[in-house]
Amino acid sequence: MKKINTVVALAVIAITVATACATTSDTGGNTAANPSEPTAPTLTGQDIGEANGALDALLEDALADTGVTIREYLVLRTLGRQSPRPARDFYDYLVGQRQLKLDASTAVDTVRGLEDRGLVTGVDPEATALTLTPEGVDLDAALAARAAPIATQVFGEMNPTDLQTAHRVLRDIIDRSRALRASR
User: Fold this and answer.
1) Residue ranges of region Disordered (predicted)?
2) Which of 41, 24, 166 is nearest to 174 (CA)?
3) How many degrees, rounded to 5, is the angle at CA 148 between CA 160 and CA 107?
4) pLDDT (0 to 100) of residue 45
5) What phi and psi values does residue 86 have, to the nearest 5 degrees?
6) How many other CB atoms sit within 10 Å of the CB of residue 115?
7) What is the C-alpha separation between 78 and 85, in angstroms, rounded?
8) Cα angle for residues 149, 153, 155 (degrees, 5° grid)
9) Is the peptide bond before 35 cis (omega within 30 degrees of 0)?
10) Quick check: helix, strand or coil at residue 179?
11) 1.10.12.10, 3.40.30.10, 1.10.10.10, 3.40.50.720: which CATH number matches 6-35+42-182?
12) Dihedral of CA 65/68/69/74: which sign?
């Protein structure tokens, strides 16, 4: 995001989930033409991935002439909400966000690139106060202003109850996935 910050990205995915929830409840869970035939799950990881990809495309368009990648934007947004904080903790957090597809060295390199542009300070892994600079704060706000209309266009006319249901279902998917992974 979420994606637009990470929260907004989850909201785009929520569209898919809300639609799937409505379809399943309308058909008693069976979406096959013949109700006696087994069906594939109404919602799959592919659906969620496609929704995320659609949102990424919109965000890429919004950021196209800024010189900032989606990854950098998300790092700026996250750091703007979680700073100051110890650099190593922040890098570990980024690596734990699988949707960013960052390993430890790429996380550090991404933040160092922002430092080279004067947007963050305290990037050394042992630093205790990784934070945005005033220029970083300004850029974060400017990029958020570019992304905000997208969220309004995508979600503005959606039923708030559907979005709440989608959010709840997505959180449940995240929790179940983490529990399954931990049990292996």
Assistant:
1) 25-46
2) 166
3) 110
4) 86
5) -60, 135
6) 17
7) 11
8) 115
9) no
10) helix
11) 1.10.10.10
12) negative
Residue with tokens 């919602």: 43
Tokens encoding 98:
């699988």
Cα–Cα separations (whole angstroms), residue 86 to 10, 91, 106, 110: 26, 9, 17, 16
Alpha-carbon distance of 181 to 1, in angstroms, equals 24
Structure tokens at 29: 């869970």
Domain definitions of the chain by residue range = 6-35+42-182
Q: How far apart are CA 6 and CA 148, in angstroms?
A: 12
Q: pLDDT for 85-107, tens place per residue?
A: 899 999 999 999 888 889 999 99
Tokens read off for 94? 């980024």
Handedness of CA 82, 108, 179, 21 (dihedral sign): positive
How does residue 125 score in pLDDT terms, banded at 50, 70 and 90? confident
Task: Identify the residue whose tokens are 């179940």.
Answer: 176
pLDDT of 36 strictly over 80: no
| pLDDT band at 151; cut points 50, 70, 90 | confident
Q: What are the structure tokens assigned to 79, written together?
A: 């750091």
C-alpha span between 41 and 56 (Å, rounded): 25
